[in-house]
Amino acid sequence: MLPLHSIGRSARPGAREAITGTTAQDARQDHPCLRSCQPGERKRHLAFRASGTWRSAQWEGQRKRKAEHMHQAERNGYPGGRRFRDERLLAAKVTAVRAAVPGMTDVTLRGPAFARFACKPGAHLPVEVPGGAQGPVLRTYSVWRHTPADASLTLRIALHHPGGPGSAWAGAVTPGERVRTGVPRNRIVLDPRARHHVFVGEETGAVPLLTMLDALPPGAVSHGVLETTGPEAEFPAPDGERTLRWVHRGRASAAASPVLVAAVRRLELPPGPGVAYVAGEAATCRAVVRHFVTERGWPRFAVKTQTHWTPGKCGIL
Ligand SMILES: Cc1cc2nc3c(=O)[nH]c(=O)nc-3n(C[C@H](O)[C@H](O)[C@H](O)COP(=O)(O)OP(=O)(O)OC[C@H]3O[C@@H](n4cnc5c(N)ncnc54)[C@H](O)[C@@H]3O)c2cc1C
Fold first, then answer.
1. How far apart are CA 123 and CA 69, in angstroms?
2. 109, 125, 128, 167: which to mutate for ligand 1, most atoms within 8 A of CB?
3. What residue spans carry the region label Disordered (predicted)?
4. 309 C-alpha to ligand 1 centroid (Å)
5. Is any ligand 1 atom within 6 A of the Cβ of residue 252?
6. What pLDDT sits at residue 205?
7. Domains, the chain, ordered by start
8. What is the pLDDT of residues 181-238, one digit of tens each?
9. Which has the closest alpha carbon to 92: 179, 6, 16?
């Protein structure tokens, strides 16, 4: 039987013939999406044939993400899992602000709800920040450290220039100030079945990626590369021990960064696809995904991405 990743790839033009024949058909029949289908639906999915398996896999991914979001929200005490409704923002207080590395600051928040949160490594949450004339706006930040016993969590925020409302808030906030946040959610999560893990991102991506690296069980094989401005701006995972190799772009923009893509190209990885986690600026993420899929031949679904920002767009949630 064909491995499932070869089915995902079969939707790409020219690869159609790869899934013809009984073995591929068996694999399609065995696809997790089709197994959970009602008979009518199953027929419809199978009718897609080559492209159908790809669409089904996507559909299954969306269904799982939605279920996971609802589950997390329920666990955190938000039945129905509705998102960021005003009344659902949680009150917290800034308890500490500390320069982490040049260009990044740690903001620690404490709020009663943080004691109940179940945060998976790499989780993020929306934070309400002053938006000037337009009133408060939401900006998304990854959870760098979560201490339920203390009902606190720490965010590591990039101070970019010229800053938007999020960056301005992080640069000026002081302990004692009040803030409201949403509940944590996950977009990329560790895949425990991966043969090996690859982490790629710039400094904002490094925040969730290093917390995920920290959470890998002992013996898990990990690789990766992170990008920042210079050696002084590098930082290790929250436990302070594990880290990844860093490359430096100097004063150049992190948008569509050729430095990071070239470094990924140079990575020596074990044979066969593992799971890659790519986070940060959108165009760089796309270039890294293209590299894994077209140059290394990895199935698209083995490359998990989380885009954080892109020039000209404000407040990606
Ligand atoms: C799931 C998720 C997790 C995130 N986690 C983190 C995190 O842990 N730490 C963190 O610092 N950021 C994180 N971000 C990114 C952060 O939400 C954005 O950078 C946010 O837009 C910054 O808000 P702002 O108000 O400063 O700028 P905005 O008003 O949103 O953007 C204004 C302009 O500033 C530029 N810009 C935005 N961000 C950057 C940047 N980082 N570097 C250079 N230029 C930029 C762009 O040109 C943009 O058009 C995350 C985003 C997402 C979606």
1. 11
2. 167
3. 1-37, 58-81
4. 5
5. no
6. 98
7. 4-75 (no CATH), 86-181 (2.40.30.10), 197-309 (3.40.50.80)
8. 999 998 899 999 999 999 999 999 999 999 999 999 999 999 999 999 999 999 999 9
9. 179
Q: Is 160 in the pocket of ligand 1 (CB under 6 A)?
A: yes
Q: Is 161 in the pocket of ligand 1 (CB under 6 A)?
A: no
Residue 186, both tokens: 């996950």
For ligand 1, whether the C-beta of 229 sits within 6 Å is no
**How does pLDDT run across 60-79, given as a tens digit for each residue?**
777 777 777 666 655 554 44
User: Of all protein residues, whose CA lies closest to atom 40 belonging to ligand 1?
Assistant: 160
Return the closest-CA partner of residue 34 out of 50, 46, 20.
Answer: 46
Cβ of 78 closer than 6 Å to ligand 1, yes or no, is no
The CB of 312 under 6 Å from ligand 1? The reply is yes
> CA dist 83 to 67, 75, 86, 166, Å?
13, 14, 9, 20
**For the residues of 77-112, what is the DSSP string, one character each?**
T-TT-----GGGPEEEEEEEEEEEETTEEEEEEE-G
Contact in structure between 138 and 84 (CB atoms under 8 Å): yes
Could you tell me if 81 and 70 are in contact, meaning their C-beta atoms sit under 8 angstroms apart? yes
Q: Has this prediction a pTM greater than 0.90?
A: no
